[in-house]
UniProtKB/TrEMBL annotation:
Keywords noted in UniProt: Ligase
Name listed for the protein in its UniProt record: Long-chain-fatty-acid--CoA ligase
SUPFAM superfamilies: Acetyl-CoA synthetase-like
PANTHER family: LONG-CHAIN-FATTY-ACID--COA LIGASE
CDD domains per the UniProt record, alphabetical: FC-FACS_FadD_like
Amino acid sequence: MQIPLQPVFQFLLDTAGKYPDRVAVRYYDQSMTYQQLLDRVDRLATALAATGLQKGDRAAVMFPNRPEYIISYYAVLRAGGIVVQVNPFYTEHELLHIMEDSGASWILAAADQADKLQSVTAQHPVKEVLLFDDSNGKGFGVDTERVFADTSPNPPQLQIDPQEDVAVLQYTGGTTGRSKGVMLTHYNLVANARQSYQFSSSVIEIPGEVLLGLAPLYHVYGMTAVMNLGVLIGGTIVLRPKFDAGEVLEIIKTYRPTLFSGVPTMYIAMLNHPKSAEVDMTSFKSTICGSAPLPVEIIRQFEARTGAKITEGYGLSEAGPVTHRNPMNGVRKPGSIGIPFPLTEARVVDLETGTKIMPPGEPGELVVKGPQVMKGYWNNPEETAKTIRDGWLHTGDIATIDDDGYFYIVGRKKEMIITGGFNVYPKEVEEVLYQHSKVQEAAVVGIPDPYRGEAVKSFVVPKQGETVTEEELISFCRERLTAYKVPRSIEFRDALPKTTVGKILKRTLVEQELERMKSANR
């Protein structure tokens, strides 16, 4: 396949030209055709240019999943700007860091963010704040409804260099430290959307697909696998601002979605909802799991329940994000992240030097190369040089490769537990815990131990209505794991801390455990 040299917003221009009356977005009782979407995008792009936004200027876009996100995203790009992706649930402190680091001078947000934005803009001056749904008159920023009514669609005609011009600054989730701005070019994002289509083209109809838009669009996974892919194929994107398993089951009954890109917690919650068995899920053609590894037992249960296959994949913000996926047709290996995308190379290299290629079955760091790999970190050449070496993106994830060329993630370099001199990969222990019929969620971490260096500890959320003991689970693990991999302790929780995309925050669990140990020693 070839990647066309075009800006990201060309997806919308092409689809609106071919299928103007096709419904682009559904949001509760609202719907918008592709022609209506393009009209609002062009009006907003025109207004942004009139406020002084020029090519390369940064604009923060901060919405939950709703049509205004899609409008703002494409409008900023259409005006030549760089979209700074912002989680709308960020605290004032987190938002201020991103604004200062990116140098964003425009903010597009919902009116209910006004109080937070007033405080942030007092510390980081901006040129314009555009608020959506300002029906109550916040007295702050610009009400975009007036912009749409008063502005004719006449966006600037710009020359975009897709391979050099940055389209999006995607800030890393901060699960391993201070977040950094990932520079994704127009070419990176066009490539990844087209790679995603190519991998699923055998089941995708253009137009005609209905995408279940639950993965947050402000995160690179939802941005590519739901929005950009959806617009590329002329799909109808059904959006909801937050995940609620009961509501999702109603959406499935009403709109019969055909494509779903979710995260493990979504699959787990849908399977365990009391009304799950009452809903026919056979409308799905393709369901994809990303963001974090999906336990094999959950794959088995979901497929037995729905008849739909889950194709697991892998990605990271620095690669736009997808690099691997199990094939739609052909060999699919549960528990594997599959094979590299078209035009993508991948290797497993030694953890010490990152240069020696490891043989099949031996763990090492996963490194990738391809058209979706970022340009670098924003204003951070040192971290860029550490992460991209000789053209290879060092992912920080530990993987193995089998004799057939399928890759398996066994953990993160920083999550690997060394206990008594032995390496323990948390995912292996978690896979066993998920096999227990009373376990809904599990996370395994290493905690300080005076004898072993680190001890294996598990945090478990039992299934609703079930009672399980620590002894029961430890005994279950002993039957299935080498002794040094068995958790030394298990703590039960009602819920586990997660990012907004459903990734379990193991760093938070470790910090909580360290604080508990410190308090106990006082």
